[in-house]
Task: inverse folding
């Protein structure tokens, strides 16, 4: 059997080395961790200033030069960067050392419906995959566990060739676009030892499993994330599957950010790859136990650095000095944000907002969109507002393709749901004062 060329093998073992190193880092002393962060902050700030036009100008405008940033504490001298700024400066946010056409690409619209393209070197992409595995291994996942992941099946392309062939920490995908009855049957047939997916999708699956009195889906544990899930819903999922539910917090830009260990107390911050700050409305860091907006500095993104990047979510720095598990990474409490609506189709099927995020990402004209919002006014009617980028594609062509694409992805008949597309100059805040990508106005 051919496993690919020598570079495949090398990259595979390099990722295995990354995983081992990341696991060791969780046992570092707090002093060693802080020293490491200070060193990497100095390096990334210097690199961004020297190689990325956007940051070079931004730092100069703030009156800060790389020599002024000697530690994590000095990050507060730098401005907070928001998604809109990166969108508006898309041609100036990639390092001059790289050709964007030769970089890997991931995209996200987050909860705001504003697409952002993130560029990565192959090495950075490998490191992200290693980061993704760490909480799974901490929670007890073994290399050849049957790992079932409810996500877009296209994500199988993100697995390395050897990973797919050997089945080493390789998930089997169940399509998030399938209706829940089909998902339940697929999961039952696959008999997972680890069940993974978006939190709300897992909740909907648990409801279907209980309704059908399926007793054979018994994973050792469940990994959820991407969406906020309340305590009652989490306990329901745990009861139905008779397994502990561990939550993760991640973003497409930075990959894994924080995660729960088997103690399930709070979230361990990935402090060896990210500096997380919690800031108030004035941009000042809040005290432990106080709510603050999450602002992150990546310690591994060089092709497209993220320095003091506001995620648009909120959290609480823990008052606990350490976790009972003994790992040294700092802790954070409940995350607030990412609260989008659930769309209900005429069949009664409920579709989480994140599913629409993937539908839009796979849309042919996704890169021509500056912002979008999907509004459900009736069970058989969806209205899509689109703010195009300047000089974008033909609106009629975009409209016809989106209607066709959305109905295909949701497996809708021609007249089951009306999809109306409207191009606008601006998309205002919703009634709650938030900028959400999916809004249901059904009572």
Result:
């Amino acid at each position: 059997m051919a496993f690919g060329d020598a570079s495949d093998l090398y990259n595979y073992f390099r990722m295995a080395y990354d995983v081992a190193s990341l696991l060791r880092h969780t046992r570092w002393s707090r002093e060693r961790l802080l020293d490491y962060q200070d060193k990497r902050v100095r390096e990334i700030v210097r690199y961004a200033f020297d190689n990325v036009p956007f940051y070079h100008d931004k730092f100069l405008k703030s009156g800060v030069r790389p020599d002024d940033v000697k530690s994590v504490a000095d990050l507060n001298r730098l401005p907070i960067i928001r998604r809109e700024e990166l969108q508006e400066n898309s041609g100036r946010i990639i390092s001059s050392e790289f050709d964007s056409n030769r970089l890997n690409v991931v995209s996200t619209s987050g909860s705001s419906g504003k697409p952002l393209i993130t560029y990565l070197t192959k090495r950075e992409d490998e490191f992200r995959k290693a980061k993704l595995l760490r909480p799974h291994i901490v929670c007890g996942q073994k290399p050849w566990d049957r790992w079932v992941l409810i996500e877009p099946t296209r994500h199988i392309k993100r697995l390395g060739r050897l990973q797919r062939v050997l089945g080493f920490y390789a998930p089997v995908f169940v399509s998030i676009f399938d209706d829940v009855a089909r998902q339940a049957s697929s999961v039952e047939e696959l008999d997972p030892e680890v069940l993974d997916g978006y939190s709300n999708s897992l909740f909907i699956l648990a409801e279907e499993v209980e309704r059908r009195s399926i007793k054979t889906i018994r994973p050792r544990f469940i990994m959820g994330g991407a969406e906020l899930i309340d305590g009652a819903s989490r306990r329901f999922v745990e009861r139905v599957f008779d397994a502990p539910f561990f939550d993760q917090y991640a973003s497409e830009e930075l990959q894994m950010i924080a995660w729960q260990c088997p103690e399930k107390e709070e979230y361990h911050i990935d402090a060896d790859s990210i500096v997380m700050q919690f800031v108030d409305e004035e941009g000042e860091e809040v005290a432990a136990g106080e709510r603050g907006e999450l602002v992150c500095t990546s310690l591994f993104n060089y092709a497209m650095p993220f320095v003091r990047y506001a995620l648009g979510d909120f959290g609480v720095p823990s008052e606990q000095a350490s976790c009972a598990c003994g790992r040294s990474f700092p802790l954070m409490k409940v995350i607030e944000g990412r609260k989008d609506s659930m769309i209900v189709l005429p069949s009664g099927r409920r579709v989480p907002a994140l599913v629409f995020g993937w539908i839009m990402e796979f849309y042919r004209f996704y890169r021509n969109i500056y912002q979008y919002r999907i509004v459900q006014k009736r069970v058989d009617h969806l209205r899509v507002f689109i703010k195009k980028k300047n000089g974008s594609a033909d609106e009629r062509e975009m409209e016809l393709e989106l209607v066709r694409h959305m109905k295909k992805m949701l497996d809708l008949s021609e007249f089951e749901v009306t999809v109306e597309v409207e191009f606008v100059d601006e998309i205002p805040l919703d009634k709650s004062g938030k900028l959400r990508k999916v809004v249901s106005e059904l009572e």
Summary: The chain is about 30% helix and 20% strand. The mean pLDDT is 86. The first helix runs from residue 6 to 25. The chain has two domains: 1-337, 342-440.
